[in-house]
Design goal:
The structure is a homodimer.
Chain A (H helix, E strand, L loop, with lengths): L1 E5 L6 E6 L6 H6 L6 E7 L3 H14 L3 E7 L8 H13 L7 E6 L1 H13 L5 E6 L2 H7 L4 E6 L2 E8 L4 E5 L1 H4 L3 H18 L1 H15 L3 H21 L14 H10 L7 H20 L3 H13 L10 H12 L10 E7 L2 E7 L2 H9 L1
Parallel strand pairs in A: 2-9, 3-4, 3-5, 5-6, 6-9
Antiparallel strand pairs in A: 1-2, 7-8, 10-11
Helix pairs in contact in A: 3-4, 5-7, 5-9, 7-8, 7-11, 8-9, 10-11, 10-13, 11-12
């Protein structure tokens, strides 16, 4: 088992990474000194595959789990769904020492985390991410929240889990498209922080796409390490943490104007990263060779690397970007790369240049 | 001007107490280095009296305030109202550096604070409490949140304001009943922490009821000091902070079973405090004389000190108490008094005794 520590003082926690970890969920929760009652929040895709095993493990360790299943998909990241979860927790008398287990992908983790952050002013929660995207990204670092009609993740909190348990076995049953979308965030870590990781991904892509357990374990652990390092330095995104948003400003806007669902998050981010790489070439001198390596690795992973937008949709994209949480005084700030492995945040980008890069 | 500091490390803030402070709102916000845009969240009672002055002060200091007015009353502490506030903030493009001003009583402060705590994962907020209850209690300490159909304050966060501005002039226009209800919490501070304050309240009650500015200023400041000391030692209610809930376990339950609205919070708490004093006599040896002094001071303030409950309603009250956030492993824990000025939290009370005390 690989263990990555997220160093946040009294809010520190561990990320455990191994195959067949779900069977240890109850035992690991036991070590945290939590109350007996808990709620597993999961979705209609994951529940039939994994919820019974999670419940068995918790019950065997002496916990009394309640199961709350929400519809799979981004639409469950809504205030209405949050309210339903609250009502279930209250109806089953979950108290302050109770805890929430998020069993699923990013949507479930974000929703369940926000519920845990705000029910009774905050109860403990444990992340059991079951997708690659959630294992390397959304389950670590404490960003939880839901969407508003006006934009993605506009409501939420910084609220750290007490434990993250990455069961690598769950990755074996992921649909191909979702697995590849998760790799977009893996590639992002290479670009923003770790050139050797990027080279490894270039070199071992076939093994990764074949879901080779050994390579996957190493790669997931390395991504978690990077995220833990970044979050440990800047929990609430007042500075460095912004680098994790490489490709996300445009990516989020693409998700927004296409109505959340046409593109998976990782797919939108892939397009956003290629655009950000091109902006980086114009503004920070990223070499044409590295722009091409970024594009090529994403394309080889089977991810979209460009989007055809009408003039109307380019305008809508611009509007959507202005709602990004990183906007300050009306100015959109980008994360741009100087080279693979080294990025800078807070970069101003003229709107015309964004337009040009997207039209290319 | 009196200044009380709430010592919470990087989340420390000041409570300013003086007449005519509303005119200084803009200037005081200026000192905090907040963004230009802000939202004043207020209610239909307070808006016609004070919102224009708050806006003028903010505008004169260079801020661009948006006004959000919610219906007066406890019903506005709902998820639906939170969602409406989010949508307004998003529609007006409030960014992370924007801030929320809560202008009103406890309901407005709790609602606006929760909105601020969760919009964009948290933006700054400033409390401008306009009722006695809010000035001495709810605006200080960072408890924010809303109600669920299942119970009061079941959703929320610990989220500290950046500034609390108590304009004593606002107290002069409070309806009599509301002013007296606020005094219940003032009396509570005497019981839980400060026997000399309790004696002062006994002695100077006529002046206080006449809203003598000098006495009120001193009393409000002392209550804020006590709350700041307690919260400074235990921000998230893992221990000592529980003493602030003297009278609240039964009080909250009375509010719940009477459908939030029949009793003002302070009135329900007054009944709860007399009941808690009687329980204290049975369990912690509080003297009969002091039980009577507590009852007499509340009664002289014009507050209810007992409630007539049918057997059915006593059962409902018991059920409602079990939903209290301080319940642990199904056990309701009370704050009880050893003497006036000294209480103990985490006290177990047999259900039969509660029943007996309420039937008395």
């Amino acid at each position: 088992m690989r263990v990555v520590k997220v160093p946040l003082g009294s809010r520190s926690y561990s990320i455990l990474i191994a195959p067949a970890l779900l069977e240890r969920l109850g035992a690991e929760c036991r070590k945290l000194g939590l109350g007996q009652r808990c709620a597993i929040i999961t979705d209609t895709n994951v529940a039939p595959l994994l919820a019974a095993r999670a419940e068995e493990s918790l019950t065997a360790a002496g916990f009394a789990p309640l199961r709350i299943t929400v519809p799979a998909g981004e639409k469950s990241k809504s205030i209405a769904r949050v309210q339903e979860c609250y009502q279930q927790l209250a109806a089953h008398r979950l108290e302050r020492k109770a805890f929430v287990v998020a069993l699923g992908g990013g949507v479930v983790g974000d929703l369940a985390g926000f519920v845990a952050a705000t029910y009774l002013r905050g109860i403990a929660f444990v992340q059991v991410p079951t997708t690659l995207l959630a294992q390397v990204d959304s389950s670590v670092g404490g960003k939880v929240g839901v969407n508003l009609p006006a934009g993605k993740n506009l409501v939420g909190a910084f609220y750290q889990p007490r434990l993250v348990l990455c069961d690598l076995a769950a990755l074996q049953s992921l649909p191909e498209r979702e697995f590849r979308a998760g790799l977009a965030e893996v590639i992002k870590y290479g670009i923003i922080y770790d050139a050797p990781l990027f080279r490894r991904l270039e070199r071992e892509l076939p093994k990764i796409l074949a879901r080779d357990a050994g390579v996957l374990a190493a790669v997931v652990a390395r991504c978690c390490e990077i995220k833990a390092e970044v979050v440990g330095q800047d929990e609430t995104e007042s500075g460095l943490r912004a680098i994790l948003n490489f490709g996300h400003t445009i990516g989020h806007a693409i998700e927004a104007i296409s109505g959340y669902g046409k593109f998976l998050h990782g797919e939108a981010i892939a397009i956003g990263m290629v655009a950000a790489a091109r902006l980086s070439a114009s503004l920070l001198g990223l070499s044409a060779d590295e722009v091409e390596r970024i594009r090529a690795l994403l394309a080889a992973t089977g991810l979209p690397v460009a989007i055809k937008l009408s003039r109307t949709n380019r305008t809508r994209l611009g509007e959507a970007m202005k709602l990004d949480k990183k906007v300050s005084a009306g100015e959109i700030k980008f994360v741009l790369a100087r080279k693979i492995g080294a990025v800078e945040y807070g970069q101003k980008v003229p709107a015309a240049l964004i337009d040009m890069v997207l039209a290319a």
